[in-house]
Design brief:
Chain lengths: 492, 430
């Protein structure tokens, strides 16, 4: 069946908007529900015994958070996922945000002042979280003395006053939470307190961030055993966990024993993508259903692709973008190429990047139609899209996660990859004390030396390791960092 | 005195210095003759000084010594000569926009000639021609060829195997018919020598069916020839040099004959190791796909580098897409730790050699897709990404291919290689 021009344009229009620019938090509720994929391996995060949830940048931790806290999709997940039915996910549960709390939490400066003013750092770190936990669950507390206390009435930004008020209450907060726990147990219900976006808690003040996370982990390592029905869900980036594991202390090990990891298999990545596509519009749903992919339908979650293995997605992917990534057979299979180019330097595929790649490919195809027959995307549109996505991805990372990355970019400008590690260290060490961010001159990378910085960049996947001490940059970062692949035979 | 290897580059440097915009020579051809002596053919600009030719001859003579054969100046030549000079310019290989090279050789013509296109495009039911090549012998090339043939036969296909290792025949024996009486009485050498005398020859005289490899398909083997006292005499009479027109080369005619008469699904060429004439034929671009077998040894990579340059850079510089190839890391150690190190070393070397000699610089236009580019190196299917075949002790001594046919057909490594080859032609098994 060959698509007519207008049909293709309509489908491309829908496809270009199916990912909401790849940010879960920007999607409306209805869209989120339709596009969210319940992944069996991730569902374990909702088990009450799991306190720590690890995932790489862009892995979808925030989506899990939203599923439970904002969208109340747990019943739908239990309904549609066999693995969820095998877990002890409670029926009666309240999900409350422990962090971020917007205006109800101190800013970076306030946090820094607070830590600096405390004689015992360890006590300060734990008291902080104890106090804000009480504030979070205040509406469920039974003890009226607590409910009338200044601690609950003060603005959340007034951290010194809040913690002072907390301390002045002596053992009352603890007793109040003990009572709450007993009440929940009697009612067979739960309160889950979620902590997300911890990497920005100190607004890139790494010491504050580590102190805060250490305090949080320490607090819950102690109290997770005391309370059976008040449970934490701490979402933490895997690289932070690995890098700062020691700094975060022995308490982390207590929580690590029962953790969930948000990893994405190729099968789940494609299922996630296909679900977004199939639920983007009725037209795309019909286009998808004409392929060999099987779908279930759920009133809350929409069309859910059922893939036994990753290659089950091939018929649809190849229907959309063809079998090969070039004018002929030799340029690699589209099915593999898409995933390969949505990976970081450690080989972790980033769901957000995969979605954006398809979205942007649709934009490119609409601007310059090249696809034929019943395909939506031509490989050339996908290649052009990769450059756009890379630049966008790096900008996003610069802005939200790694504000010092522009400094790396500037120091590596004009280089071609792969690069010798020593050369990279030399380039990074040049002007080491000069600013690393144009907009925030005080921002510095969390490393003391260029070698440590390279290790960090490898760890977070901006760089990839090659044999013989060479460093590569995954395509996802390449164009965005203004780097090129060097070498090759020059044509005349 | 300089060595013969240096003579060409010295001549090239001297000519390049005098050629181009603002220089006295408009264009030039370096003629490297049969014996290694250098002659230059030049077209002078109108503004060239009148004594330039004389001075240039002196300069070349001083630099090249006895390697210098003389200067031809095209300007003012008679019409017939002028035509010859123009033809020489057209037929020569580009070294630069205004400089070309004419290599006159006595042998290895296929290695020296400009690269060519495949015998036929592997589409519309035409069988892909796949050449199996290694620079050094004994690395498992023929075994891998046999494995591929067996695997495809077992899914019902007909595979024609041509032994082009005429100096050291092997595959005809490895894939024998089971007994000497059933093996082909004549082979490739006979066919090629006989062709001028027997243009309508009976193909079945030159091949046999390999025994006990498959119930479904078949492997039709064209051995090099019966290794008796006549073989050497025939081999000595074989002229493998390129023909004019090129599509009349006896090997091509043989392949065409096989294609038309047997309608095979594949034609596999077992190429001689090293820089032989027959390998030059296969590696000039006539195969649709060349499988390059290498090991981690520096000697292996030095040789493969020459071949990869032939398949890649030479073509790229001339504006032709690279000849399709993929590399196999052969004889990988069985020990896990050593294998990991070997693989890493091999991959690193493969990346370097291919980047320098095969992949084209990334295009400025993303839509440009004619070549394999550096940007394509990330693809799993990229030519430099090695398929690994480990050393397998069991295969070191076999009395008959039938003893190991099942192993070769079911080995995960050989399966992976076979799938990779097949996928290049859209023929992966379901």
């Amino acid at each position: 069946m060959t698509l007519k021009g207008e049909e293709r344009q309509d489908l491309l229009f829908d496809l270009s908007r199916m990912g909401s620019s790849g940010r879960a938090e920007e999607e409306g509720s209805e869209t989120f529900r339709r596009t969210y994929l319940p992944v069996p391996e991730h569902v374990r995060a909702f088990d009450p015994s799991v306190a720590l949830i690890l995932g790489a940048r862009g892995a979808g931790k925030s989506e899990l958070f939203r599923v439970a806290v904002q969208e109340n999709l747990l019943p739908a997940i239990i309904r549609t996922t066999r693995e969820a039915r095998n877990l002890r996910i409670p029926d009666k549960a309240k999900w409350l945000p422990g962090y971020p709390l917007a205006r109800d939490f101190p800013d970076a400066a306030g946090l820094r002042r607070f830590y600096d003013s405390q004689s015992s750092k360890a006590d300060a770190e734990r008291d902080l979280w104890f106090a804000y936990l009480v504030r979070t669950v205040r509406e469920s507390l039974c003890e009226s003395a607590i409910q009338e206390s200044a601690m609950l009435k003060l603005p959340g930004a007034e951290i010194d006053e809040v913690v002072a008020a907390f301390r002045s209450l002596g053992s009352k907060p603890l007793l109040a939470l003990d009572d709450l726990d007993r009440k929940l147990e009697a009612e067979d219900s739960w309160i889950f307190v979620s902590y997300d976006e911890l990497d920005v808690i100190g607004a890139y003040d790494w010491d504050s961030m580590i102190a805060s996370i250490r305090g949080l982990v320490g607090f819950w390592a102690s109290y997770a055993r005391r309370w059976t029905r008040i449970r934490p869900k701490i979402f933490l980036r895997t690289d932070l966990f690995r890098r700062h594991g020691q700094s975060l202390g022995a308490d982390l090990i207590k929580l690590t024993a029962n953790r969930a990891e948000i990893n994405w298999s190729d099968r789940n990545l494609y299922a996630m993508l296909i679900k977004r596509i199939a639920n983007a519009s009725d037209r795309l749903a019909e286009y998808c259903r004409e392929s060999k992919v099987r779908f279930d339908e759920d009133p809350d979650l929409g069309f859910i692709p059922r893939l036994q293995k990753d290659t089950d997605a091939k018929p649809l992917i190849e229907k959309i973008a063809g079998q090969f990534m070039g004018a002929n057979l030799k340029k690699g299979r589209t099915f593999l190429w898409l995933l390969a180019h949505a990976r970081d330097g450690n080989g972790h595929a980033i769901p957000r990047a995969l979605v954006r790649l398809i979205e942007e490919s649709a934009v490119q195809e609409r601007d310059r139609p090249l696809a034929s027959h019943n395909r939506l995307l031509d490989p050339r549109s996908i290649r052009r899209a990769l450059d756009v996505v890379s630049k966008e991805y790096v900008l996003q990372v610069n802005t939200h996660e790694l504000p010092w990355l522009p400094g790396v970019q500037r120091r590596l400008q004009g280089e071609g990859v792969p690069m010798d590690r020593r050369h990279v260290e030399y380039l990074l060490s040049k002007e080491w004390d000069q600013p690393w961010s144009e907009t925030q001159p005080n921002i510095r990378p969390p490393a003391q030396t260029a070698s440590q910085l390279v290790d960090l960049l490898l760890e977070i996947g901006v760089l990839g390791s090659r044999p013989h001490n060479r460093l590569d940059v995954p395509d996802l970062f390449l164009a965005g960092l203004g780097l090129t692949r060097k070498g090759g035979v020059r044509r005349r | 005195m300089i060595h013969v290897r240096q003579a060409r580059s010295v001549a090239q440097d001297l000519l390049a210095a005098e050629t181009g915009e603002g220089k006295p020579i408009e264009r030039a051809v370096i003629i490297d003759d049969l014996f290694g002596k250098i002659r230059a053919l030049v077209w002078l600009t109108k503004s060239a000084p009148t004594d330039f030719a004389i001075r240039f001859k002196v300069s070349m003579n001083e630099s090249l010594g006895s390697y210098w054969a003389g200067l031809w100046v095209a300007n003012g030549a008679a019409q017939a000569e002028s035509k010859l000079y123009d033809e020489l310019w057209t037929a020569s290989n580009e070294l630069g926009p205004s400089l070309r090279l004419s290599d006159r050789v006595r042998s290895r013509g296929f290695w020296m000639n400009p690269p060519s296109d495949p015998a036929w495009p592997a589409e519309n039911n035409k069988p892909p021609v796949v050449a199996f090549y290694s620079f050094k012998g004994g690395v498992g090339r023929t075994t891998a060829l046999a494995s591929f043939a067996i695997q495809r036969a077992r899914i019902g296909e007909t595979v024609a195997v041509i032994d082009l290792d005429l100096d050291a025949p092997g595959v005809g024996n490895l894939l024998s018919a089971g007994d000497p009486e059933s093996d082909a009485k004549f082979g490739v050498v006979d066919y090629l020598v006989e062709l001028p005398f027997r243009p309508r020859t009976n193909l079945r005289d030159y091949c046999h069916l390999a025994l006990n490899l498959s119930d479904r398909g078949q492997v039709v083997v064209f051995p090099a020839g019966k290794l008796d006292h006549d073989y050497l005499a025939l081999l000595a009479r074989l002229d493998m040099e390129p023909t004019t027109p090129s599509d009349q080369h006896p090997l091509l005619l043989m392949m065409d004959h096989i294609r038309n008469e047997l309608s095979p699904d594949w034609i596999l060429l077992d190429c001689r190791a090293g820089l032989s004439e027959a390998s030059g034929f296969a590696l000039s671009g006539l195969a649709n796909l060349t499988i390059l077998f290498g090991t981690t040894s520096p000697q292996s990579w030095e040789g493969l580098g020459v071949v990869i340059e032939r398949l890649g850079a030479q073509r790229v510089r001339g504006g032709m897409p690279q000849a399709e190839c993929l590399v196999v890391e052969a004889m990988t150690p069985e020990n896990t730790q050593t294998a990991a190190l070997a693989k890493s070393t091999f991959l690193s070397e493969s990346e370097n050699v291919f980047k320098e000699n095969y992949y084209a610089e990334d295009p400025s236009n993303d839509d440009d897709d004619k070549f394999w580019y550096v940007r394509d190196m990330e693809s799993e299917d990229a030519p430099h990404q090695p398929s690994v075949i480990s050393y397998w002790q069991k295969l070191a001594f076999i009395s008959s291919i039938a003893d190991v046919a099942d192993d070769l057909a079911e080995s995960p490594e050989y399966n992976k290689l076979a799938r990779r080859i097949a996928s290049r032609f859209g023929r992966e098994p379901e």
